[in-house]
């Protein structure tokens, strides 16, 4: 039985990857004033920043209506047996719920699996790539769903923000808002954890921000796939990719651009690093934890939980 993969436009997947892996994207909505645009179809990244900054038009975003997912599912099911649909974190977006409602409208619940990625941007994108590769390899729906669910906790995502102004305006900071809302004029590093954004530090310059992202990659374990996402600074994205490539084991490193729906909340200058670590079975993880306990140093015992320091 054949399986096709569906995601939403907040996955920020590069066009060549979408084509190569036959991934279908349901666009989110970007709203300027009284006009609604489909993310990546009716409006581009450059148009978003022009309207936001140069024209100062009020902007918001919204999930697509359930009928958009339903119509997409119906169309795909004419040519395939089953669908795995992976959406942006339900804790910051209504995309997952909209996809669930769309599935209900098709009366094909047994043929469509809808999954919550608990991530955004290429965190979601890397899970979608994994699912599409498994589908291309001929895996069935239960196997794909199981492997994607196992990989959700292995997704790591950090974002460098030139300003938190747009994230605050869009209400997407979640729990990070309480810590960062009162110190808006900063360059912040946020991470995605359990489907929500959390602060991990602040930096004074973009160079320091890139350094922090490289350090986070260096500390990651058994990286299988990674991606760099930028809003308006492609040179910084390529610099970050080059830095990572010198310490990686020839793993794939995708470069993509932050789509309009997320660009509204990230704003100019946003730079994201996403990666997928290897899934470790429970027995192996317990053994590694026991080994690590035997090598804890006094320095590590006193290390603070939140590295929230200016550099």
Major sheet strand order: 10-9-8-13-11-12
Q: Kindly state the percentage of residues in helix.
A: 40-55%
Contiguous uncertain segments of 5+ residues? 284-288, 291-311
Content-based structural category: alpha/beta
CATH architecture tag of the largest domain = 3-Layer(aba) Sandwich
Query: If helices are DSSP runs of H or I spanning 4 or more residues, what is the number of helices?
Result: 13
Q: Give the H and E element order.
A: EHEEEHEHEHEHHEHHEEHEHEHEHH
* Tally of DSSP β-strands: 13
Highest-level CATH class of the largest domain: Alpha Beta
Through-space gap between termini: 53 Å
Which fold name is given in CATH as the topology of the largest domain? Rossmann fold
The fraction of residues in strands falls at 15-25%
Task: Name the overall outline.
Answer: globular
> Which whole number gives the mean pLDDT?
86
Major β-sheet annotation: 6 strands, mixed
Count of individual domains: 2
Radius of gyration, taken over Cα atoms and rounded to an integer in Å: 20 Å
Q: What features would you describe in this structure?
A:
With 311 residues, the protein is an alpha/beta fold. It has two domains: 3-152, 3-Layer(aba) Sandwich (Rossmann fold), CATH 3.40.50.10170; 154-280, Hypothetical Protein Tm841, Chain: A,domain 3. Helix content is 41%, strand content 24%. The protein has helices at 15-21, 45-54, 66-77, 95-106, 121-136, 141-151, 165-170, 176-180, 206-219, 234-245, 260-266, 282-293, 298-301, and strands at 3-8, 23-26, 29-32, 35-38, 59-62, 82-87, 112-116, 155-161, 187-193, 196-203, 223-230, 253-257, 271-277. The strands form three sheets. Strands 10-9-8-13-11-12 form a six-stranded mixed sheet, with helices on both faces. Strands 2-1-6-7 form a four-stranded parallel sheet, sandwiched between helices. Helix 1 (15-21) links the parallel strand 1 and strand 2. Helix 5 packs antiparallel against helix 6 (141-151).
